[in-house]
Amino acid sequence: MDRRAYLGVVAAGVLAGCGDIDPPAEDTDDGADPADDEDTPPEEPADDEATPDDEEEPADDEAEHDDADEPELTEDERVALERLEEGDSLLGEALELYAESGNADSFLDVRASATRFRWVPIARSVREANDRFDRAAEPANSDQRARIDDLRDVGEFIRESARTQAKVGPAFEAFREVLIAHQGDSISTVTWNRFQDRVEAADERMESLSSVSDPEVADASEQLTVEEYAGKVDQLAAERDALVAVADERRPFTEGHRAWIDAERAYRSRSWSRAAREFERATDRFESVAERLERDPVDHEPFDRVYQTFRTIAGTLADAAIEYEASARAYEQWARGRNRAENREEGDERRRAGRRILRDEDVVTDIPSVRRLENYEGP
């Protein structure tokens, strides 16, 4: 019998001999002052009615029990632990270098806009960490070796993330150059080629990163969490996917832009039939681009701004081309002498509608062909 319970029984027996007081059958709150029974050891509380002091004791005993059960490390195991923790610290330094290379507060804050990101210093720190893991493996026990394997995987993830980051940045920079190139009247094949080459390089690196990704191994490290690991993979994948989507639209976008420029020139030269045909072609190409690029925004404002601008140009020119095509067809009928007043009025009305679309969207106002159409007052 537990010592406390035993004393309680003895005390109850003593009190029973001094009078006809029956001990309470259960713990009831009758308003009695606890001081009245201060000489009587309390009954041992039920498991679900433990006092705060009684609740703390098992926790202490449990902690002592856990410490007693934990085997003491051997000298070899202590050496292994020290070395693997040194390696883990070097992985932390690699993450700090990651943030520094991207001019950010943490490696999760480094995004595609870090166009001058350098991965070599990060890989060097990971290599030094692996050296510590090599030295830790021989004296390590089986559990330590399992942790070392996971830490190696964490290091590989950091290195592959850095190498992917170093490809995504230049691809994003080339994307901005493509956007700038389409602000003129010509289409730069060189700019598009550079963009596609960089996107392909980023895509290849992302495939390598995906092949080694296993966020659960982050549990072995003190330097990052499973959520941070998975978050970085998701960031890079989202940016890569958006860049690949734009690169896939090269042909329809450039065809649409070329048709738009040809249509604008034909429209102002009063070649109504050709203008209508080219505006229709521009609408078809730009509408398909805008629809296929409709996606959730990338969670990075500088990137998403460029992406949405590119998509908005396509959508705006498609909408305007619809109005200018209708205007050209009405002017064509007017030129042929059919319902002259009515056709002229419709041509003017649809031209003004197209101009309103262009003027309402700032992202197209600097395109020379757009400005010329806005200034054209009709035949």
TrEMBL record:
Residues 76-85, 339-355 have a biased composition (Basic and acidic residues). Residues 14-85, 335-355 are annotated as: Disordered. Residues 23-75 have a biased composition (Acidic residues). This is Uncharacterized protein. It comes from Halorubrum vacuolatum.
